[in-house]
Structures are given as C-alpha cells and as structure tokens.
Amino acid sequence: MIPRWNQLLGLLAVTILLGACQKSAVVKQRGSTKDMYPDHESWESTVVISRNGLLVAVADSRRMIKYNDRNLAHLIGEVDVDFYNEAGQHMSHLSSDSADVDMQANRMSAFGHVIIRSDSGLVLETETLRWDDTYDMVTTEDTVQFTTLDNDTLYGVGFESDVDLTHWKIYQPWGVTARGFGVGK
C-alpha cells in the first residue's frame, strides 16, 4: 500500500513541476528603453531660464521629471513661473497645473488652469499657453478670458501677446465692458 501512495505522490509532484516550467513571455517594446525613463526626478523643484547670462524666467513646481536627451523638463503640480525683462525687473507671473520646458530653445508650454498676471494688473486665463523666449511672446489657440485695467472682460479663441501683456491680440473675440456707451446723451 505504501509504494502505491509514493507513486501517486511522485506523479503529482512531477505534474506540478512540469506545469511550473513553462517559458515566461517577454514583452518587446519599440524604441530604446532609455527614452522611456527620465534622467532625473525631483520634488519642490526650480528651473532657471536665462538668455545670454540674463535672467528670463524662474519656474517652480511640486515635481520635475527631466529628460536630458530631449532637453525637456516636465513640471507637475502647482507650477509657478515668474518672467523678467532685460533689466531684471519682474514683469508677470504664470500659474498652471503642469508645464513642459524645452531647456535648449527656452520654450515652455503650460497646461491646465493657466493664469498669467502682469505686474500692471492685466489677467489672462486659458487652458494652454505657449511661451517662446526667441520672440518673447505668449500664445494660445484655446478659448481665453482677458481682463483689462478698466475691468473689461474679453473672451475669444486664440491669443498672442508679449509676456507683460501690454501688446495683445485676441482672435475671434467677444466680451463685456464695465463702461457705458453714452446712449441717450
């Protein structure tokens, strides 16, 4: 009787072992794995952008993921960017949910609840905004809300301006003004 149990146990052990000895699947992905992973990741990060040794912008965020081969810094969470003129004076402040900074070309794209406030009091609100240091311009193709110094609220689709929002253009505009039109005078 004992040898029969040994045979059954031995057969059961061999079946289990053979079942466990199958090849594991290898998943192949296109491209280099180097492109998939960041070179640096940090929290409570600051990115300083300069042009010819002069401070242009300082960007802070909760988290930064940096890819050296693409010269890209991806900023995530409570992004705050301060812009400066050639004399080093503060011009405007941008806040957004996230942003991508092209470190080579000094360009930035901001995403999610983007608000830029000039030091003079002008305010732009949109969902995406691109800043290009080469042209010292901010642009978007999204819907915008722009509040002027006279508390006029202008809306539109598409916008371009210098960084301090003094020379701006709204495409496809509509709006509301706080001023009267002098009707009935």
Structure explained in plain terms:
The protein has one helix and ten strands, in the order H-E-E-E-E-E-E-E-E-E-E. With 185 residues, it is mainly β. The longest helix is centred in the first third of the chain and has 19 residues, at 2-20. The chain is elongated and about 105 Å long. Residues 23-29 have low confidence and may be disordered.
Task: Give the arrangement of secondary structure elements.
Elements: H1 2-20, E1 40-51, E2 54-67, E3 72-84, E4 90-102, E5 107-118, E6 123-132, E7 137-147, E8 153-162, E9 168-170, E10 174-176
Antiparallel strand pairs: 1-2, 2-3, 3-4, 4-5, 5-6, 6-7, 7-8, 8-9, 8-10
What is the CA-based Rg, rounded? Answer: 28 Å
Biggest β-sheet, characterized?
Answer: 10 strands, antiparallel
Following the backbone from N to C, one meets helices and strands in this order, namely: HEEEEEEEEEE
- The tally of domains stands at 1
Percent range of helical residues = 10-25%
CATH class, named Mainly Beta
Distance between the termini: 117 Å
**What would you call the shape?**
elongated
Unreliable stretches covering 5 or more consecutive residues: 23-29
SS content category:
mainly beta
How many strand segments? 10
Number of helical segments? 1
Mean pLDDT: 83
- State the CATH architecture: Sandwich
Estimated share of beta-strand residues:
over 45%
What is CATH's topology name? lipopolysaccharide transport protein A fold
CATH superfamily: Lipopolysaccharide (LPS) transport protein A like domain
